[in-house]
Amino acid sequence: MVLKAVIFDLDGTLINSAIPFEKMKLKIIKYLEEVGVTTGLLNKKMLNFEITRRAIDDLKNKGFSQQYIRETLCEVSRIMNEVELESLDGASLILGAAETLKALKERGLKLGLMTRSCREYAEKILERFNIRKYFDAVIARDDVENPKPDPAHAMRLLDLLDVSAEEALFIGDHWSDAECAKRSGLKFVLFSREEDNLQLPISDVLKVREMKEILRIIGENS
Hints:
With 222 residues, this protein is α/β, with parallel strands linked by helices. The chain is 45% helix and 13% strand. The chain has helices at 21-34, 48-61, 66-86, 97-106, 119-128, 151-161, 175-184, 212-220; strands at residues 5-8, 15-16, 92-93, 110-114, 137-139, 168-172, 187-191, 206-208.
């Protein structure tokens, strides 16, 4: 099937993120323990979605109301947004990202952005580096109930782009991106620079180390 769209992750794929993820996780864990989550249940080695999922299960098992849990999650989201927005000035554009986006648009491809960062952060980053103009659709963490690796995040973006999973390619830098692609039927390319030591628990993943390699891969599959 003909490739019609390319979907990008944001942090670690298009930009060098300055988000202090450890600080974010520690703030979230401290708050969750203060509001009733079992002390020691959560740790900074978990991804944020794993932290919140485990916290929700713990609060449910303890009999906390759905309303209480919703309010708790709203505060977790506020903490995440705050830490992300504080990091804006430290972010930088990955070498070749703007040129690659421009070249893809010139080939007539639709471009989408799927990120676990909040929308305000994503929009400000894209505008700051003058790359928002290349994207036909952006779906951030707070635009969906269940962000990636949940396939619902990808399916929402595919709907906005008006393409099928078979007609799109997803480029990301983390195993959760690969998992999301697998669960939603998207072809996937891992962007992993040489200094990274990323190990994916998913086999047969195509890896690239430079943005310009993406243009070659897409050319081969067009």
